[in-house]
Write a structure and sequence with these properties.
Length: 113
């Protein structure tokens, strides 16, 4: 049985035995929620998510595109692939570079082809 993580997202239809899963494990989600595109899912239970932002440049009165990459835990019940648009949330650090987890797959990569 999946638990409610309190962010208004539906639990995934599949079950998993991952202790670091926010729905079927014991870790709690807190902090920022971001939306980005999965650019790599080659690591074991980890994916790289590209976040793109548009920020203002006051001096030139224009906007600038900037982007950054975040490593996020990819639970087996969600299993995001390359090209998917996902929602990630912050939670306690699991590794040196992993401090976020995938909580919802918004759209899959096959829809955009």
């Amino acid at each position: 049985m999946a638990r409610d993580i309190g962010l208004g997202v539906k639990p995934p239809p599949r079950e998993c035995n991952d202790k670091n899963c926010p729905f079927h494990g014991t870790l709690s989600v807190r902090g920022k929620v971001l939306v980005g595109k999965v650019i790599s899912a080659k690591m074991d239970k980890t994916c790289t998510v590209l976040i793109e932002r548009i920020r203002p440049v006051k001096k030139f009165e224009r906007f600038m595109r900037c982007h950054y990459k975040i490593h996020a835990h990819n639970p087996p019940c969600i299993n995001a692939k390359e090209g998917d648009i996902v929602k990630i949330a912050e939670y306690r650090r699991l590794a040196k570079t992993v401090a976020h987890t995938v909580i919802e797959k918004i759209s899959s990569g096959e829809e955009h082809v």
